[in-house]
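My convention is simple: the sequence line spells out the residues, with the fold written below as integer tokens. I include a record here:
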Amino acid sequence: MYEKTYPSKRFRITLEFLKKHITTAETVFDLGVPNPFSKIMEDNGYTVLNTTGEDIDIDQSALQQTNYTVFTAFEIFEHLLNPFTVLQQVKADKVLISIPLRLWFSPAYRSKTDPWDRHYHEFEDWQLDWLLEKAGFTIIDRVKFTHPVKKIGIRPFFRWFTPRYYLVYAERKTS
């Protein structure tokens, strides 16, 4: 059923997690340009705003100029040189962030064809937790999940039981 509606297990789990914590009455600022998951959120009743392609490491003004109540970054932080500065600019008190986890059996991702498509960070779960804590957020919920691939080999075998993604919902600490 889900495979016909959503292109991947990752999208299904992310949408279920989003629905668990965020109502459609809230405005979502999704870091990055419009993408397939932005469309899925909109199709499920969410109001979604995106960045316009600016280099977020250099220009974070959209985070301050836009009105939103929820900040999301789905598989974006690993591409940033300093995600801490991004979190410092977030106006919303609610954040949902997902990252691909560092895999012990695979090197950091780097596209051979796209010079911008690479992972500067390959996080472990505790690193994202610490990043959120240092930026003033408290983690409310989290989930890890695998992402098996339909290939034959040692690495595809490990992907069947090694968590690949980490998804977190956090709220800004109140004094």
